[in-house]
Amino acid sequence: MPHRPKLETYLALADEVRSVASSVADEVSRKLRESTRAPSFRDRVLVGLAVKMYNSFQCLRKDAEGRCLEAMHHLKTLVETFIYFHWAARDTGGKSARLVYARTIHDTVRFYKQNKGYVDPAVYDEWVKQLSTATKGIENEWKGFRNRRLTQLARDVGIELQEWYNRIYRLACGPAHIGDLLDHMPGNAGKIHLGNTPTSHLRAEIALDYGLHIMWDLLKAASNYFGLGKEERIKRLEARHNAVRML
Fold first, then answer.
1. Helix, strand, coil share (%) of the chain residues, nearest 5
2. Which one of 35, 53, 98, 138 has the lowest number of neighbouring Cβ atoms within 10 Å?
3. d(C-alpha 58, C-alpha 50), whole Å
4. Is residue 85 part of a domain?
5. CA dihedral for 10, 63, 183, 80, sign (positive or negative)
6. Which helix (H) or strand (E) holds 233?
């Protein structure tokens, strides 16, 4: 394999992700249309989380291509959704998926309650009703879940996901907030530099590296769950990725 900067190779692999994901989406859509039964609520939630992960990855890829430190912002979103996806997926009965869905409505209700000028009272009341419907029959579980932190959900799934939270999510949180302030401050000479910082290229590379790992996991899970038979192709791409990151 001829030498190429890691980031360039990661970007090429990200294009492969787009190709595989498009194929997966088309085939799953066809299966759902041809099925004699509607998809379960659990499946709809998981697909929604998967699509959010894919869209976040595409935004990450675009920033990484521009060598932008802001790729880390999208990695934070990607890892958070990744944790919710695995937490909801482990429950085949669908109750966990309902709780994740209810949290999204709860957050909307809380926002509108604190910012009353955004919507008419009737709209707010409708969101409150939706939350009541979403949690009907699982009120006790919802009471225990609604204030649980992301790190607790990761721990529920297992040590590996807990490590992802500690090592990757927390890593991405710095640039997503003001943890990278030092990178943006002018030196003693007072020269102000707009645009990318000296660490932008490295951070973009790291973000895309971890983003690719998440996408391989997601695509393999989708292929396996829907019986698409794409696991070997994805594993070959993953092996190429691992070979490059060891250089």
1. 75, 0, 25
2. 35
3. 12
4. yes
5. negative
6. helix 231-245
Interatomic CA distance for residues 1 and 10, integer angstroms: 14
pLDDT tens-place string over residues 80-132:
999 999 999 999 999 999 999 999 999 999 999 999 899 999 999 999 999 99
194 in a structural domain: no
Quote the CA–CA distance of 49 and 101 in Å, as a whole number: 10
Is residue 43 one of the residues assigned to a domain?
yes
Half-sphere exposure of 49 (CA within 13 A, CB side): 26
Nearest-angstrom CA–CA distance, 158 and 104: 23
Per-residue pLDDT reduced to its tens digit, 38-52: 999 999 999 999 999
Query: In the block, which residue shows the tokens 């090592």?
Result: 167
Select from 173, 125, 129, 130 the least CA-distant residue to 150: 173
Q: How far apart are CA 139 and CA 145, in angstroms?
A: 10
Domain with 57 in it: 6-182+201-245
Distance CA 131, CA 114 (A): 16
- Report d(CA 148, CA 23) in Å as an integer: 36
Q: What is this structure's pTM? A: 0.93
Residue 191 domain-assigned (yes or no): no
Lookup: tokens for 63: 């920033």
Instruction: Report the Cα–Cα distance between both ends of the chain, in Å, rounded.
Output: 11
Instruction: Report d(CA 165, CA 123) in Å as an integer.
Output: 36
Record the tokens describing residue 83, joined without a space: 């944790």
Q: pLDDT band for position 1 (50/70/90)?
A: very low
231 within 8 A of 223, measured Cβ to Cβ? yes
